Amino acid sequence: MRFTHRLILTLVLSQAGLPLFAMHIPDNAIAVRSIVSGIVSYTRWPALTGVPRLCVFSSSRFASVIADESNTSLPYLPIVVHTRREAMVARCNGFYFGSESPAFQVELLKHYPTNALLLIAEQNSECITGSAFCLQINDNSVKFSVNLDSLARSGVRVNPDVLLLARKKKNG
User: Fold this and answer.
1) How much is the pTM?
2) How far apart are CA 81 and CA 58, in angstroms?
3) CATH of range 25-171; options 1.10.150, 3.40.50, 2.50.20, 3.30.530
4) 6-20, 21-35, 98-112, 122-136: which range is least confident on average?
5) SS3 state of residue 90
6) Which domain of life is it from (predicted)?
7) Contact criterion met (CB below 8 Å) for 143 and 30
């Protein structure tokens, strides 16, 4: 009888744990969140007091992980936006782009009502125009590069150690 109770209890608990296994976060998603959090942590806005607001475009593969509001250790307040119109009224201090083109990124920057914006993109592999930080996401690794021209025009200040880290990751 005892064995039957244990077996039933084990089956019930294993069934209850299935949603937890389904919610497994891939390693590259954790790495993306870590890199984005690190970049934001080492960025300073000239007139910002408090936590920066990071708009995350819903087209991002990692929007749910980057914009996880239940994660209280994030160094930013995530705001998911779906359209350019939503982005324009969101009053964000930075943007995380998914499939938005570099041209879209430049246009948004031109028309945004603030002068200091941190721009990070996950699908801007050349990193020549648009975002200041561009993630290169593979199955086993996440690296990033820096567009120094975009960063210089962004109005934000980034700790030089982040720039060195980008250089090491690019060469490494």
Assistant:
1) 0.81
2) 6
3) 3.40.50
4) 6-20
5) coil
6) Bacteria
7) no
Residue 95 has, within 13 A of its CA and on its CB side, a CA count of 34
Confidence label for 94 from pLDDT (cuts 50, 70 and 90):
very high
Q: Amino acid identity, residue 124?
A: N
Long-range pairs for 119-124 at CB < 8 Å and ≥24 separation? 119/94, 119/95, 119/150, 119/154, 120/36, 120/39, 120/94, 120/95, 120/96, 121/96, 121/97, 122/32, 122/60, 122/61, 122/62, 122/96, 122/97, 122/98, 123/97, 123/98, 123/99, 124/97
Query: Which amino acid is residue 126, in one-letter code?
Result: E
Determine the Cα–Cα distance for residues 160 and 84; give it in Å rounded to an integer: 31
Domain boundaries in the chain? Answer: 25-171
Write the CB contacts of 47 (distance below 8 Å, at least 6 apart in sequence): 116
